Amino acid sequence: NNRFAVAASMPAARTSAGRPGRPIQAENGVLRSITLTNFKAHSHFHLDFNPHVNFIVGSNGTGKSAILAGVIQALGGNPNKHSGTAGGARAAQGLIQDGRDYASVVLVLYNGSDDPWETQRASTQTQARLEEERNVTVTSELTRLAGNKTSSRYKINGVAATRKQVAALAEHFNLQVENPCAVLTQAVHANFLRETSGGKRRYDFFLAACNADIVRERLLAARDEYKGIATSLEKHEERGAPLADRVASTSKLVAEASRRDALERDVSAAEAELAWAEVRKVERAAGAGEAEVSRLKDKVGEATRREESAVEELGRLRALTEERTREREVRLQQLHAAQAAAKAAAQEHRKAQRAAGEAQDALGETRGELAAARRRRDEVSAQHERKRGNLDSAKAAAAARLDAARRSAGDAKAAAAAEVAE
Questions:
Q1: CA-CA distances (angstroms) from residue 51 to 48, 61, 241?
Q2: Whole-angstrom Cα distance, residue 388 to residue 126?
Q3: What would the pLDDT profile of 218-227 be if each residue is shown by its tens digit?
Q4: What is the pLDDT of residues 93-125, one digit of tens each?
């Protein structure tokens, strides 16, 4: 029972400069038709648009504003964003016709001029038809759920799509469906004229008209993301310091174990040299004559006892060496684990740094505000380099102590040799 009239003249076919010889009827993104099913006042409604100016005429309450709400809904917008009564009820359930559980809006847009929207995921048959008709079809499906809730789904050329993808399509065609200066509903117009809040709504209207509200939301989101990345970097730095201390401590233990092994080898060599010195001494005494045999036997017995004691001591030292070797292997395993953890922490640190770099690229317009954060990052990097230098210094000091221990063991060996010689 709705009465609609569409008035415009159809222009003659013309040729696109980008595609010679192909006739086009309108620029990309111009509405070609709309189909509403169970959407607000329309059980089933279809309307073909002229590619230029269209006038929709009808009595009050016949569904003219519902057509505009359907266009906003299909292109990923919110028909109720700027007014509690814009296009009808505020809730999404108000878009579904009473007594129905399902509603849909199908929009057909021109897509045959320069810079078309790419439809890469459509089937071969659908792609051929779309290229022939030079159209892109967007479908919005609404389903009534329990608990006064509504679900929405989108399709582009029959292929499931997200609301974000539909919004990207609208942005490609420069269709600002939520900009009140581009799509002005009757209710938003009335609220604008009846402003009673001291100009706040008009200021919000101005922000939405120039898309400043979107820029502000993106800036705040980017700032929050940067703060999260900075916090993550600080946590990684805090975790890296204990790991570096563990690596330094384990390195000291390994150096100490190496020094002990060298000392034990020197002691074993000195004991063997001492035993051979005693044997040579007994051999020289045996040539002195029969009178010295008894005395030499006593010395031989004494040397034997000392040799047995030396063998026992050598066995004890070998057992101690094996035990120290096992401890060193355990400490080496701990060192490898600590190095692996430090490497993983470094990788996480590099990932966090890459993420911070990406966030800094996204904040190109807020470089001034991020200057302090960058200086803090440089200070943290400098502290990290200083800690690394301290670690290298500690390693050099440990190497020096190892050399000193080796020299001490050499001195001890020389002293033992001198004592044997005496």
A1: 9, 26, 67
A2: 62
A3: 788 888 888 8
A4: 688 988 899 999 999 999 888 888 876 555 555
- Most confidently modeled range among 38-47, 94-103, 180-189, 386-395: 38-47
Task: For 22-46, write each residue's pLDDT tens digit.
Answer: 444 678 889 999 999 999 989 999 9
Contact 28, 110 (CB under 8 A): yes
Instruction: Give the CA count within 13 Å in the CB-facing half-sphere of 110.
Output: 19
Averaged confidence pLDDT in the chain: 78
What percent of the chain is predicted at pLDDT more than 70?
A: 77
Which of 90-99, 164-173, 307-316, 323-332 is least confident?
A: 90-99
How large is the angle between the packed helices 367-421 and 293-362, nearest 10 degrees?
Answer: 170
Whether residue 177 contacts residue 109, with contact meaning beta carbons closer than 8 Å, is answered with no
Residue 2 has pLDDT above 50, yes or no: no
CA distance 334 to 236: 21
Residue appearing with tokens 């690596």: 247
Asked if residue 345 lies in contact with residue 337, where contact means CB atoms within 8 angstroms, the answer is no
Residue with tokens 């960058």: 374
